[in-house]
Amino acid sequence: MKEDQLKSPQASRPTPSDPKPSDLEEGREFHPDFPKRGGLLPCIVQDAGSREVLMLGYVTPEALEKTISTGLATFYSTSRKKLWTKGEESGNIMKVGEIRTDCDQDALIYLVEPDGDGACHTRDPQSGKHRYSCFYRRLSDADNTDNIDNTGRSDNTEKGGMETRDLRPGENRKSLEDRPAVKLEFIRRPSR
User: Is 109 a domain residue?
Assistant: First the structure.
């Protein structure tokens, strides 16, 4: 995606250059509808290789523009009220290979190549490493919350929870072994 493809309408009323709602839903134009959500869109961050959901952040037009210009996942912190680039403090950066919007164009997905030991700011108590995904809890029974450790294994498999395993760079998952490797051309190759 190129910078000139990004359109960030600042007003909630359509202008003559804004696409019609039917064109947004059925067309191919990338036109995130920031005004619909008060200038802030939810953004799912997904590992481009394993397709695992890593985190959820919020994006303003400025955060999206910075993501496109740098190739690094950038968000708006609702608690600190400022832009932040994932990994600027932890070193666990997310290189963005593709940006998608949903059918209503009021939610985004960043498909990323993680560079670091995890996406979550919390750490696994056993390994001390950042958790690979922020989604490490699941509800497996009506009265029980099931935690998944840093390897993705449930601590409740003996109680009927489904055992899972994260796909890490360089590893294979049996169900994915026959699939071709995912190859991405990243927006920009940031220098570190």
Answer: yes
Strands 137-141 and 144-147, sheet pairing? antiparallel
Burial per residue of 115-125, b for 16 or more beta-carbon CB atoms within 10 angstroms, e otherwise: bebbbbeeebe
Domain that holds residue 57: 30-115
Neighbours of 98 (CB within 10 A): 15
Q: Please state the pTM of the whole predicted model.
A: 0.67
Tokens of 192: 């570190």
Residue-wise pLDDT for 127-145, tens only, equals: 898 999 999 888 865 555 5
Residue 46, beta-bridge partner list: 53, 111
Percent of the chain at pLDDT > 90 equals 48
Half-sphere exposure of 82 (CA within 13 A, CB side): 3
